[in-house]
Predict the 3D structure of the following.
Amino acid sequence: MPVSVPDCIFCKIVKRDAPASIVFEDETTMAFMDIRPMIPGHTLVIPKSHAAYLEDLPKGSSGPILETARKVAAALRRSGLRCEAVNLWLANGRAAGQEVFHVHFHVLPRFHGDGFGMRAGPDYGRMPERAELESTAEKIRHAIVNQ
Ligand code: 5GP
Ligand code: ZN
């Protein structure tokens, strides 16, 4: 049985306690239409078990979510919807734009001229020295042990 949180809208969708237009589900994942699509075909892919953030997922359990996103991306290209390309987007934390605190990938059909864009911060474009990249990498390498 998936872990469920009573006041989580996506857990309610998993339990069929809230409506959703479901396009796919398997034992551990579900894909359904976003209620406020940024573009026709905008689909959300979730783990059925509640986790607020990506890193809260049990170790080794994230693979099937990407596999379902892969299926949805392939389906969007075959669906007849306008879809020349696909973006995956995952907002992980409030500062990253997360509003629903149950892990989800946005699977977004894209086409030339669709008006989408990703705005980078003011630091974008700078190419740091290798030493700075190495120093940053070392901090992450150090922190990645046993995750
Ligand atoms: P976030 O900003 O957390 O990455 O995205 C949350 C997404 O969930 C938004 O795109 C929003 O439209 C969608 N959403 C919020 N409530 C519901 C709901 O009740 N049903 C569905 N299908 N999508 C929802
Ligand atoms: Zn949930």
